[in-house]
Amino acid sequence: MRLVSVQTGRARRVPMAGRTLLTAMVKHPVVGAVPVLPLGLMGDEQADLSIHGGLEKAIYAYPAEHYAFWREARQAAGLGQIDDSLPHGSLGENLTLEGLLETQVWAGDVLRFAQCELQVRLPREPCHKLNAALGFPGAIKAMAMSGFCGFYLSVLTPGALAAGERFELVPGRRSVSIPTLFKGKMFKHLRGQ
């Protein structure tokens, strides 16, 4: 398993869906090591702390393997070619991971990096900003149906992270999986199909 890229973003007002919204969903790649603090990556912010951030949602991780799905979804919505580039961080994630999907992760598992440890906590619930960020109104429903949600991490051991480094998954108690938690939260988006 590998950390493909690391992204941070500041809360700012950006045009989305015909209006101006405060968001920190726009993330940019970080070069070199990034300090990992108890509330997340240095230089990263969240616009709405009632939904994102805090100790249990300090860092958002997303599997790189799902980017092909989003490129195809954007193409089906008429927003570009199948090879349309979506840079890592387009889903608002801080960490783009390779080799670890939601179906392999349980709340309480630990991602052990060389200089820090992060604990899996919760699946990401898509908000209205996901539709705007990906450019089509069906993005929330597509995430709900696919289960390609990524997951939030808390910081067990502060330290530093850098793109390209390897990590290992240390199983926790394995009482509830990320897909099970996500499915329960997404019921409202899946009704009426």
Describe it.
Strand 9 and strand 10 form a beta hairpin. The mean pLDDT is 91. The protein has one domain: PK beta-barrel domain-like (M1 Pyruvate Kinase, Domain 3). It has an eight-stranded mixed sheet. By secondary structure, the chain is an alpha+beta fold. The chain has five helices and 13 strands. The radius of gyration is 16 Å and the shape is globular.
Return the structural class.
alpha+beta
- Categorize the overall geometry: globular
Strand order of the main beta sheet, please? 4-1-8-7-11-10-9-13
Identify the CATH architecture: Beta Barrel
Approximately how much beta-strand content do the residues carry? 25-35%
What is the fold named in CATH at topology level?
M1 Pyruvate Kinase, Domain 3
| CATH homologous superfamily placement | PK beta-barrel domain-like
Order of SSEs: EEEEEEEHEEEHHEEEHH
How would you sum up the major sheet? Answer: 8 strands, mixed
Uncertain segments of ≥5 residues (pLDDT<50)? Answer: none
Helical residues, percent: 10-25%
Mean pLDDT: 91
Count the DSSP helices: 5
Total domains: 1
How many extended strands? Answer: 13
**Rg, alpha carbons:** 16 Å
